[in-house]
Amino acid sequence: MDIVKDVQEATLKVGDFLCDSLGLKQHNHNELVTGRIFITGAKGVLGFRVAQRLLSCGHPLTRIGYRHADDLGDFANQLSTKGAEVVHFDWKDEATYSSALDGVKIVFCVTPYIENWAKTFPVFLRACEKAGVEYFVKVSFYHARKENDVYQKVNFVKLHAACDSLLSRSSIPYTILSASHLMSNSLVMHHAEDKGKDKAKPIVLFGASEGKNINYVSPNDVAEVATRVIMYNKPHMRKEYTLTGLQPISDDDYAYALAKHSKRPVFYEDLPINMLVEKEEGGFTSIDDVDWKVRDFVGLEQIKATGLEEDIAFVSHDIEKICKRKPETIDDYLQATEYMTPLEKWIFE
Length: 349
Prior knowledge:
There is one protein chain. This protein is α/β, with parallel strands linked by helices and 349 residues long. The protein has helices at 3-22, 45-56, 76-80, 97-101, 117-131, 155-168, 185-194, 219-231, 251-262, 273-282, 287-304, 318-323, 330-335, 342-345, and strands at 36-39, 62-66, 85-88, 104-109, 135-141, 174-179, 181-182, 203-207, 213-214, 216-217, 239-243, 249-250, 266-270. A seven-stranded parallel beta sheet has the order 3-2-1-4-5-6-11, with helices on both faces. Helix 2 links the parallel strand 1 and strand 2 (62-66). Helix 5 (117-131) runs parallel beside helix 6. The radius of gyration is 19 Å and the shape is globular.
């Protein structure tokens, strides 16, 4: 399948109604925020969606950063046809920061999932201050900044808390979007594993949530909130929002929904933590990846198993307040394949 053509057709299909769903008028520049917007992680499920929305609503100064030229085939080509400016940007290469940020007024930041990513963030933030960035929107994780919260036992969340605190003390007005588990996470994780496999064979999702219900949030909702705060930023400056799904579901129910919508056999297998660690460690080709990736994944699974996300108090209403509608369900997310990146859409092909 031609991925580029597939994504192009999807974007054209949603472009006509994206602005209506956001409450915006397409190509009415008097209603749009002024200044160049730089999006990190435009290859990911959030960055791509935000870029797609901004471009479909007629924002003329949307810049997206890519690390490798060969990335252009999957994502940037179709965004550039909508008017995006594509530049070289590598989180690991500080020398790329200055040119990527030249003339930028707003940054939408999805931090990279690479080893020592939290060490690159302060350097990038300083480069933003030096470049004269006037507004910074960062995606974080649920309760990253809530003092003594159980989620801060997970290193991934703790690092987000440190970066969020650094941003809040910077000279740049900001908005922090703290999201619960993305509904797209399992699809992205299994994207590479599915290549070349028999489509009739079952897809098995592994975890250790022990039958507890988990709060998953749609990346469509997170992207819509991000687009709204970017385009109408003044009411949202120096605020932090918690973005959750409408209600929790079990990982068995998540797998059932994937199977129902993809027409492929999908199952969830719950493992004891020690067995999950052994399985995840065996899945990495580089020993350097094992420690931090397994630690993050297992840490979040242990939190899921506490059942904390089943509590009604876990649910935030920030999506409803900002978007004027209820958050998407897992069925809503899986039906909206026109929004998906190839990292998610593989299961439907």
